[in-house]
Amino acid sequence: QWTASNIIEHSVTRIREEVGTDQVLLGLSGGVDSSVVAALLHQAIGEQLTCVFVDNGLLRLNEGAQVMATFARHMGVRVIHVNAEERFLTRLAGVVDPERKRKLIGRIFIDVFDEQAGKLDGVKWLAQGTIYPDVIESAGAKTGKARLIKSHHNVGGLPERMNLRLLEPLRSLFKDEVRCIGLELGLPTELVYRHPFPGPGLGVRILGEVRKEYADALRRADAIFIEELRHYELYDRVSQAFAVFLPVKTVGVTGDGRRYEYVIALRAVETTDFMTAQWSHLPYELLEEVSRRIINEAEGISRVVYDISGKPPATIEWE
Ligand code: XMP
């Protein structure tokens, strides 16, 4: 019978049998899948699990602190927090092409992860949050973008080079099942029902060259948008919502004079499979409040626009 606790019990037994007394490594992103794997492995093998969380400077506001609070402090999971912001941003300087940015971010991520793994003794397993739809997806033919999603998502190439065996305890589960298990394992509801966040993070939501000041403004704007969506109780009604930084300056005017600053675009979509999507008809009052707050509170932004493109022809992300 399918219940969350049955699945957990069954998985825990299987993980223990498979892993024995070996050490296991997990790249924790803060997303639902890797978080559920962390919680499940922690229950199954406790101290034999080490997680690596890489802050690449392209995460949402307070994301690193939240991951550490939930897993390290609250659940007692061993998490190595790597601050790699400078390293990522330095390598990304001057890179404007979306596909090059994606590949570069994926590559640096693997390097950082690899280095951390090299410092640990006796690790024999690499755990991943692969879920059933990922398995199906990688079996079929894919476009360039989707292939990159996969190669980043699954930390491509790593296991072979590091000579680790793969542990994928969610491999036969659908997203809603993964969420049920996450809740049963005690993960916060907010984390379990969080909107998807792409592997390259804000790197593909800052159009063109990535710079720290752009990332900081975007983080602030995005947090305001999400906060107001929650406030209007619409967060769970949309499938994905986020802000995008447009490195285009436009003229604005405020009490103390003329401004010549950047633009933030807001994106909110409704979809079931993320292959097609409709833009959300968000209430004007919400959009007005978000716009007012972003212009007041996010440094260097003097204009906010709303994206009314469906997928197709537009994609959900802007890059
Ligand atoms: P698009 O932009 O292709 O996005 O309509 C569809 C869904 O996939 C997410 N996405 C990614 N997820 N790595 C990921 O893990 C990626 O490189 C990536 N690119 C897009 C996107 O956020 C949306 O949910």
Question: What does the model show?
Answer:
With 319 residues, the chain is an alpha/beta fold. The protein folds into 2 domains: 4-189, Rossmann fold (3-Layer(aba) Sandwich), CATH 3.40.50.620; 205-306, GMP Synthetase, Chain A, domain 3 (2-Layer Sandwich). Helix content is 45%, strand content 20%. It has 12 helices and 9 strands. The protein has helices at residues 4-19, 32-45, 63-74, 85-92, 98-118, 132-139, 144-153, 158-162, 175-184, 189-192, 212-231, 284-297, and strands at residues 23-27, 49-55, 78-83, 123-127, 165-167, 240-254, 257-270, 278-279, 301-306. The strands form 2 sheets. The chain has a 5-stranded parallel sheet with strand order 3-2-1-4-5, sandwiched between helices. Helix 11 (212-231) packs antiparallel against helix 12. It is globular. The protein starts with a helix and ends in a 13-residue tail after the last strand. Xanthosine-5'-monophosphate binds next to helix 7.
Give me a quick take on this structure.
Helix content is 45%, strand content 20%. The protein is α/β, with parallel strands linked by helices. It catalyses: XMP + L-glutamine + ATP + H2O = GMP + L-glutamate + AMP + diphosphate + 2 H(+).
Determine the strand fraction and express it as a percent band. 15-25%
Shape: globular
Q: Which superfamily, in CATH terms, is the homologous superfamily of the largest domain?
A: HUPs
Largest sheet: 5 strands, parallel
- What is the correct CATH architecture of the largest domain? 3-Layer(aba) Sandwich
Low-confidence stretches: 141-153
Sequence of secondary-structure elements: HEHEHEHHEHHHEHHHEEEHE
Question: What is the number of E strands?
Answer: 9
Termini separation comes to 43 Å
Number of helices: 12
Radius of gyration, CA atoms, in whole angstroms: 20 Å
How many domains, as an integer? Answer: 2
Task: Determine the CATH topology of the largest domain.
Answer: Rossmann fold
Mean pLDDT level: 92
* Structural class by secondary-structure content: alpha/beta
Bound chemical compounds: xanthosine-5'-monophosphate
CATH level 1 class label of the largest domain: Alpha Beta
Largest sheet strand order? 3-2-1-4-5
Residues in helices, as a percent range: 40-55%
Enzyme class: ligase
Pathway: Purine metabolism; GMP biosynthesis; GMP from XMP (L-Gln route): step 1/1
GO molecular function: ATP binding; GMP synthase activity
Organism: Nitrococcus mobilis Nb-231
